[in-house]
């Protein structure tokens, strides 16, 4: 497991040091959703507009396996402050390929359902995983852009995002930004690592020095430790996905049928080629995970050193979110201060435990980087 922690500030440029300008990256806000998710999608767009895009005005692309309704187009277009495009996914990019052995796939789904594996019986979920792994960046509407930020229906953006993550990544040679890293369900990918090892044997030229193997394997690649980046809120350079190394890797996994015989996703591709990663926890949470955004956690630390945790309010700028004791902060000596100190220590220990279980979540600005 790479040794990076939420309370340690890395060396190098920081997002909050970015000076606002009218310069923009070649980027898009991307959402994959269905017509019946209109109001969840509208809420997500409203929140990303309030927190970020009302200043930067990056365009949106919405994709669906069927045409969006006129109501969907109207509502989203009225909320967005920038250009919005709606597209239909090509059939061969979304639906199960004809060469897949449906009898084998059906038996696998039934077995997973009997074992209560999440999404074990869902074909549509497998379609989505395959599309997000190898096709979304090939869509004609996405081909126009280099960078994307994946936005989900029904998510929340808890904090103002007061820098441009696209420009920060572009200017600092970052390729991929993730919000959360979790442990994969091993039952969904029983053959994945063996296929990855086979691919590496066939294509050693794609394995770069300084790759992320140590993140996904604890024994030098003999086995997979199940760590993976959750792609739900990722920001990335699509030129990496469009490159030869990743394209060959996806085609190889596609040929093995694991997207339908199992539940493959893009979880373990990060070590096949070298790229720079940063955490991107801009106060984002999916509907079924709710943890304190880091802007609030830093506000807790700031306030327990000055006044009271109970009087905490979210602090708007990273400059005001101090880490550690401020030079002008009063000494901690009163019973009240000690009580607040103990509360924060308990909160910090709890968060550390959560991070060790790969459920670290949401901050105001990215403060953890590694190569």
Automatic annotation (TrEMBL):
Gene3D superfamilies: Spore Coat Polysaccharide Biosynthesis Protein SpsA, Chain A (3.90.550.10). One of its GO terms (molecular function) is alpha-1,2-mannosyltransferase activity. GO terms for biological process: cell wall mannoprotein biosynthetic process; protein N-linked glycosylation. InterPro entries: Glyco_trans_15, Nucleotide-diphossugar_trans. It comes from the Eukaryota. Signal peptide: none annotated. One of its GO terms (cellular component) is membrane. Keywords: Transferase. It holds the Pfam family Glyco_transf_15. Transmembrane segments: none annotated. Belongs to the glycosyltransferase 15 family. This is Glycosyltransferase family 15 protein. It comes from Gymnopilus dilepis.
């Amino acid at each position: 497991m790479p040794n990076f922690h939420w309370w340690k500030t890395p060396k190098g440029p920081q997002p909050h040091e970015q000076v606002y300008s009218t310069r923009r990256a070649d980027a898009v806000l991307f959402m994959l959703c269905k017509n019946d998710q209109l109001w969840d999608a509208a809420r997500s767009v409203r929140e990303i507009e309030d927190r970020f895009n009302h200043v930067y005005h990056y365009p949106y692309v919405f994709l669906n396996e069927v045409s969006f309704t006129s109501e969907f187009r109207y509502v989203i277009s009225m909320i967005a402050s920038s250009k919005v495009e709606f597209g239909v996914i090509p059939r061969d990019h979304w639906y199960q390929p004809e060469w897949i052995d449906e009898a084998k796939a059906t038996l696998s789904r039934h077995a997973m359902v009997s074992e209560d594996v999440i999404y074990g019986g869902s074909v549509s979920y497998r379609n989505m995983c395959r599309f997000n792994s190898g096709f979304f960046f090939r869509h004609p509407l996405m081909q126009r852009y280099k960078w994307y930020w994946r936005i989900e229906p029904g998510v929340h953006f808890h904090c103002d995002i007061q820098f441009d993550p696209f420009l920060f990544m572009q200017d600092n040679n970052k390729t991929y930004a993730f919000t959360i890293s979790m442990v994969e369900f091993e039952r969904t990918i029983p053959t994945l690592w063996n296929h990855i090892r086979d691919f590496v044997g066939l294509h050693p030229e794609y394995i770069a020095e300084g790759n992320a193997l140590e993140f996904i394997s604890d024994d030098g690649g003999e086995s997979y430790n199940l760590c993976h980046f959750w792609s739900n809120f990722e920001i990335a350079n699509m030129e990496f996905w469009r490159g030869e190394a990743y394209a060959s890797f996806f085609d190889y996994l596609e040929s093995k049928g694991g997207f339908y015989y199992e539940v493959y996703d893009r979880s373990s591709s990060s070590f096949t080629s070298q790229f720079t990663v940063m955490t991107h926890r801009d106060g984002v949470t999916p509907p079924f995970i709710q943890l304190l955004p880091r802007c609030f956690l830093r506000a807790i630390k700031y306030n327990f050193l000055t006044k009271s945790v109970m009087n905490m309010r979210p602090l708007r700028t990273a400059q005001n979110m101090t880490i550690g004791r401020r030079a002008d902060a009063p000494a901690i000596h009163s019973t009240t201060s000690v009580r607040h100190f103990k509360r924060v220590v308990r909160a910090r220990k709890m968060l550390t435990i959560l991070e060790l279980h790969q459920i670290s979540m949401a901050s105001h600005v990215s403060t953890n980087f590694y190569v």
